[in-house]
Structures are given as structure tokens and as C-alpha cells.
Design brief:
The protein is α/β, with parallel strands linked by helices and 141 residues long. The protein has a single domain (2-140), classed as Rossmann fold, CATH 3.40.50. The chain has helices at 11-23, 47-50, 53-78, 91-102, 116-122, 125-132; strands at residues 2-6, 32-39, 82-88, 106-110, 137-140. It has a 5-stranded parallel sheet, sandwiched between helices. α1 links the parallel β1 and β2 (32-39). α1 (11-23) crosses α3 (53-78) and α4 crosses α6 (125-132). The longest helix has 26 residues, at 53-78. It starts with a strand and ends with a strand.
Length: 141
């Protein structure tokens, strides 16, 4: 079983990681775990006149690794093997795309993460993922 866990560095996202760790005991086999952090794409156009693409990529990588740090530490402490990825784009769409590319069997996502303003305006990322995904999505509170 392959599981994708999108994380944004929030305590809620870490609860999704903790749920997967706790569920290992009752699963028939240890799941292949894929962590994913999605960074919003910076505005392009004039930004690239002042900042190189390498600098922008470094920024994405640094922010993504910082957001993944707690989840990685929890999985390391549990002794579970995982892979991690940083994607750039709109979170819900990037999560569903990563799930398709990694051919995961389930997405485990927290029901509440960062970005309360965007939740009010656009709806939650978890809700969009559940709507867009063609595989099971487990929402963790």
C-alpha cells in the first residue's frame, strides 16, 4: 500500500502523519509513505528580472524542507521508511497530481491546516483534494 501525506508544517498536518504511524500496527504490511509539501508558485514576470531562477528554486526547497521537518522527524522516530517531495503550484491540484504520479493507493490529509483566509475564500485544500482525487482520501482531524 502506498500512502501520500501532504504536510504544510502545521500541527494538524502532523496529526495525519501520527495517524499513519499509529495505523501501521494494524495494517497487513508497512505502507510506502510519500510526504509532500506544496509551495505556492511565486509571481513571475518582473520577479525574474531581480531574482534568479536558482534563487527562487532554493527558496522553494528551503521552505519545503522546513515544512517537512516535523513530519520527517516523527517518521524517523517511528523507524518508518519514507520519501519526500516538494512541489510548486496550487496545493490541491499538486497533491492530486503527485498522487497520480506516485501511483498511491490513498491520500491521508489533515482536515485543518494553515491558510485560514484561503479556506474562507476558496474552501479548504482537504475539501478540494477529496473532490479532485480518484483514489480514497482519508481526512484526519
Amino acid at each position: 500500500m502506498k500512502v501520500l501525506i501532504p504536510v504544510d508544517g502545521s500541527a494538524a498536518a502532523n496529526r495525519a502523519v501520527e495517524h499513519v504511524i499509529a495505523s501501521v500496527a494494524w495494517l497487513k504490511e508497512v505502507p510506502q509513505i510519500h510526504l509532500l509539501n506544496v509551495q505556492w508558485k511565486l509571481a513571475s514576470g518582473n520577479v525574474k528580472l531581480f531574482i534568479s531562477q536558482d534563487t527562487i528554486n532554493d527558496y522553494y526547497r528551503e521552505q519545503g524542507m522546513a515544512a517537512l521537518a516535523d513530519a520527517r522527524a516523527k517518521l524517523d522516530a517511528a523507524g518508518l521508511i519514507y520519501s519526500y517531495h516538494v512541489a510548486i503550484g496550487t496545493p490541491a491540484e499538486a497533491i492530486v497530481q503527485a498522487a497520480q504520479e506516485q501511483q498511491v493507493d490513498q491520500i491521508v490529509v489533515s482536515a485543518h491546516g494553515q491558510g485560514t483566509l484561503s479556506n474562507m475564500l476558496l474552501g479548504s485544500v482537504a475539501s478540494k483534494v477529496a473532490h479532485l482525487a480518484t483514489i480514497p482520501v482519508l481526512l484526519v482531524k
